[in-house]
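pasting for the record
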Amino acid sequence: MFATLTGLGLSSAAGLNAYIPLLLVGLVARFTDLIPLGPAWAWLEHPVTLISLGVLLVVEFAADKFPALDSVNDVVQTIVRPTSGGITFGAGASTVELSEITGEASGAAVSSGGVDWGPVIAGVLIALAFHLVKALSRPVINTMSLGCAAPVVSFLEDVVSFLTSLMAILLPVLILIVFPAMVFAAVWVVRRRRRLRSERRDRRGSGPEDALQGGDDLEDPRREW
């Protein structure tokens, strides 16, 4: 259960920032025993992988703070974030041998160095869902704030991704609270976006009618005169 919660939290965080959970998993696995990665995921703690992830994190951190450029970054991340979610969920789920839960036969594939694709697919879908909410809401936020809110919102997303990843590794039971809260926030963002688009369409549709009505109001005094 704890391995599943760890993977769930990491893949959710990957939907906001692809590199934070990957880097945290690699660093923790390399320097501590908190995440004993399976053979299929040992490459995450390799120095070359960690350096590459650090560089990519800096680039993504900067690109996501500027209006317009953040939308381009989101398009690129449509592949990267779900991939990160699949990797982190798979790596998190590999921290507990399946043989400890379902018997030696069920755990043979993973313990022999294979990949359990169930957690990987689940991680891809979870990260993709959070990524889509983030990517669709950012243009609306930029429009409403004239781009001023972009760096603030992006920084908050990075903080949430970092804290969620940290809790998934250190206290995975907290994901039982954090994950529903993230889902609730995502649903609120989607509904808010739809409402704003509906209000904008209503204003556009009522514009000419209001103008004609205003013109009629100006003509009425003349007619009475």
